[in-house]
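Q: what sequence does this backbone want?
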């Protein structure tokens, strides 16, 4: 079976006083998932808005990715295929707080 799909992701970013917030919205055509991400500039660091945008956006998309994995795990279990729950690698990189 051959299939071609297009899923759309929209990112909304806002920055205020060193805090960048992102909202990512995944539209699959049949479902919508929304993810949130936040990045805060350390007061001792130089404020580079592009870095806050990148961090907040990536965290919002990571939030969607986690939701999508949970949906897939649920769907796998529904068809009797089991899931990978409990086999998640530890997080890495910058903290979310």
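A:
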């Amino acid at each position: 079976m051959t299939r071609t799909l297009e899923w759309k992701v929209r990112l909304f970013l806002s920055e205020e006083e060193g805090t960048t917030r992102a909202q990512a919205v995944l539209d699959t055509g049949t479902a919508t998932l929304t993810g949130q991400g936040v990045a805060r500039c350390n007061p001792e660091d130089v404020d580079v808005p592009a870095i806050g945008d990148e961090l907040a956006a990536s965290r919002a998309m990571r939030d969607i990715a986690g939701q999508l994995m949970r949906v897939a795990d649920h769907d796998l279990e529904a068809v009797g295929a089991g899931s990978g729950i409990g086999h998640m690698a530890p997080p890495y990189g910058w903290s979310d707080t």
